[in-house]
Amino acid sequence: MTRSARLRRRLVEHLLDEDVLHAPEWIAAFRAVPRHVFLPRFFMPAGGLWAAVDRDDPGWLETVYSRDVLVTQLDDDPDRWELARRTGPVAGTPTSSSSMPSIMAIMLEELRVRDEQRVLEIGTGTGYNAALLSHRCGAGLVSTVDIDPVIVGEARERLAEAGYRPACAVGDGELGFPAGTMFDRVLCTASVSSIPVAWLAQTVPGGLVVTTLNRPIGAGLVRLVAGEDGTGQGHVLARDGRFMPLRAHRLAQADPLPMPSRDDWEQTRLPLSTLLQPRKQFEFFAGLAMPGVRPVRDHDGTDPHTAGGPGESGVALVHPDGSWVRHRKRAGADEVAQGGPRALWELAEAAYVDWCELGKPERDRFGVTVTGDRQEFWLDTPDGRTWPLT
């Protein structure tokens, strides 16, 4: 057995231990598809920057078969890796990656693919996920599309090297596959702020669409059943997942926050982590109750009025209308300061009370309905309490 084959088997064992991989067909795919073919080079974090890594570097193969997400592009620029290789670590925002194998396994299993079904993947990326789909589905049944021609070209070459030849197209994934083929399953490996109607139009009635939502707070996986007329209805899934957004669905950068005065800070019994951590379960409901509010990195957390020196730098909440909340830990207590036209933290505390009174519903109690003129979430039943998707 080759070294890479041993590492693939070890990766599968990790996925089994994490309870994210169950179906024999997908176990066989993860054991067979050589992930290293699709990741000849990538970026690794290096002190706030990104270092270039390729197959000549020690530990490259072990890193490829790790459980980590591996960044393959910065700032939509295919030349940044070469620059980092020449000059050393560079700054940048990740714009393409090979996702964590665990979330890939979750999404592939949630797709519920059956034999002889045609599958469309939105977001080709490295091509690794398309290879897993091709191994499971067989020749001629998988199509993949990506907006970046460089990404598609490299993925097509690596897929062929690994022995797979899905239909690869360059195009805006929000519009589906350029040829207009109908599919039994649609899987998006990027996140979206709303469900593109083209996906449902290209899905046979009764077919499934699985994607992740690009929500500022409370993102996650959804699975929709396509209707007869381009509509869809489904559920938020219990197993969570987060992906980079499609380019048209990215969020704009937030403006710098004002500095609170000493008297602006007040204690709260609601930790910010309860609002933002998916495992806390309140996070999904908070996103519904606080539309447009999103977390941002609070790079300037310095509080000149704190006797002990700089305050804690962490995460803040902002809204496009200019409202904001800063959070800090001080003497073991949670404190917030807020400003702008609305008191966002009061909204957060009220949402938490509402969530508790509803019985603390977890994410899989929520459903999604998509029609030509509306997209909304609902709790328990489509005719129950609703919230707009965007």
Structure in words:
This protein is α+β, with helices and mostly antiparallel strands and about 400 residues long. Helices cover about 25% and strands about 25% of the residues. The protein is built from twelve helices and 19 strands. It has helices spanning about 5-15, 25-30, 35-40, 60-65, 80-85, 100-110, 130-135, 150-160, 195-200, 270-275, 280-290, 345-355, and strands at about 40-45, 50-55, 70-75, 95-100, 120, 140-145, 165-170, 185-190, 205-215, 220-225, 230-235, 265, 295, 315-320, 325-330, 335-340, 365-370, 375-380, 385-390. The strands form four sheets. It has a ten-stranded mixed beta sheet, sandwiched between helices. Strands 12-16-15-14-13 form a five-stranded antiparallel beta sheet, with no helix packed on it. The longest helix has 15 residues, at about 5-15. It is found in: Cytoplasm.
In short:
The protein contains twelve helices and 19 strands.
- By DSSP (H or I, 4+ residues per run), the number of helices equals 12
Helix content: 25-40%
The assembly state of the depicted protein chains is single chain
> How many strands appear in the DSSP assignment?
19
Give the biggest sheet.
Answer: 10 strands, mixed
Which strand order does the major sheet show? 7-6-5-8-9-10-11-17-18-19
Give the overall shape, derived from the CA principal axes: globular
Distance between the termini: 50 Å
What is the CA-atom radius of gyration, in angstroms?
22 Å
- Proportion of beta-strand residues: 25-35%
Which whole number gives the mean pLDDT?
88
**pLDDT under 50 segments (min length 5)?**
247-251, 300-313
Structural class: alpha+beta
